[in-house]
Amino acid sequence: MNQKDTRRETLEFNKLQKRLRRNVGNAIIDYNMIEENDVVMACISGGKDSFAMLDILLNLQKVAPIQFKVVAVNLDQKQPGFPEHILPQYFESLDIPYYIVDKDTYSVVKEKVPEGKTTCGLCSRLRRGTLYSFAEKIGATKIALGHHLDDIVETLFLNMFHGARMKAMPPKLRSDDGRNVVIRPLTYCREKDLIDYAEYKEFPIIPCNLCGSQENLQRQAIKSMLADWDKKSPGRVDSIFKSLQNVSPSQLADTTLFDFVNLPLSREGQREEYAFTEAVVSSTNIDESMFIDITNI
User: What positions does the domain tRNA(Ile)-lysidine/2-thiocytidine synthase N-terminal occupy (predicted)?
Assistant: First the structure.
């Protein structure tokens, strides 16, 4: 690579890095993800997303107007062939506090899930429960996960198509037991940017051997669908995500979110409706006796 190409590559990376840091910073501010004196437990799986999240959080820690700690935590699920030395070496090279949590969830998943069935559901529940408990043990006030914008949109469609629910991944969430707060700092980041960032930074990525070979995952089908949409109509995935930030309950159909049954008409609305009715009647041959005078109700 010549000097000109090197300069161009460096310039493109600087743009990418600024964009990712800005997106993470904006997400943290918009959802008040990190507060003064927080202890943020960054969950590092060994994938590109969690590596990027940790890298960006450590950078923001240096320049943020508040003080907070970042602790890296990896859950060693005892998958066969998992390179146990990689993450400790990486964390030590960063000179940051870290923990490796040993929990054989792999055996549980292989025992409980029939051959050929998707393992991700049970695996994620076991992993989440272990991490939640460990966060309390080390006094972490926030649990940071590496889910990005594409993950959130994919989850929305997974729940719609396969669960009949309009539900995604919130940027910030209090756990069901109320003891933990989960944050997703990469909420505004696109996966394609994270891929480029990981390649440039040369993170020591560890593939997931448990589910990486499952080619027929429903999420993969959704991912392919969204990629095709975004290719044909650039910006569509971003627009779908923005719709999650601009919800109108009265324009949907959930009676638990909006009282459709007892929907009163305001007096002003009644007057407007009556005026409209009079206008319609006077301009047509409609029998006025067929209408109800709502001003007398």
Answer: 41-203
